[in-house]
Write a structure and sequence with these properties.
Blueprint (H helix, E strand, L loop, with lengths): L11 H25 L3 H27 L6 H6 L17 H23 L5 H30 L3
Length: 156
């Protein structure tokens, strides 16, 4: 049985929980890709992404523990969950190209979420944390795009 996904976040805490869960899922996804990688260099790349996502999760948990987010309820209601969902679900039988596409989409969704969360706080340090996370996710997406371009497009 699947839990129904709400259309909007009810609170900033809900958005943080969603982001924390997303980072854990990304970590697990990249570890799975690393385990299945045939080339040692690619394996290391995916393990590196997994470590970074675990670091993101830890940073988000610190923000949540600090409860430093203060926002207008309207801003929270403007955050639509569907804006941060990936439309392709990872599966064990997906090929390398599909995995890279999912990875790019996951990074883009995370970027958009962190950018939105950065606007929900009056605390400069918290806002900068979210902007830094957004920037890291944008870099991840770019790295996946380069891998895709170098290894998938040039082979086809």
């Amino acid at each position: 049985m699947h839990n129904e996904v709400p259309s909007e976040f009810a609170s900033v805490n809900d958005a943080l929980d969603f982001a924390i869960q997303g980072e854990q899922e990304s970590h697990d996804f990249y570890m799975g890709l690393a385990a299945n990688a045939k080339q040692p260099g690619i394996k290391k790349v995916f393990e590196g992404f997994a470590r970074e996502e675990a670091g993101h999760k830890a940073r988000l948990e610190k923000v949540k523990e600090g409860k430093q987010l203060m926002s207008a309820e309207k801003k929270v209601q403007d955050l639509k969950v569907s804006d941060y969902l990936v439309d392709i679900k990872p599966s064990p039988d997906m090929d390398y190209q599909e995995a890279l596409i999912v990875a790019m989409k996951k990074e883009k969704a995370a970027y958009k979420l962190y950018l939105a969360l950065s606007e929900l706080t009056d605390d400069q340090a918290v806002s900068e944390t979210f902007l830094a996370l957004a920037n890291e996710e944008a870099k991840h997406k770019l790295r996946f795009e380069i891998i895709y371009d170098d290894q998938v497009l040039t082979e086809n």
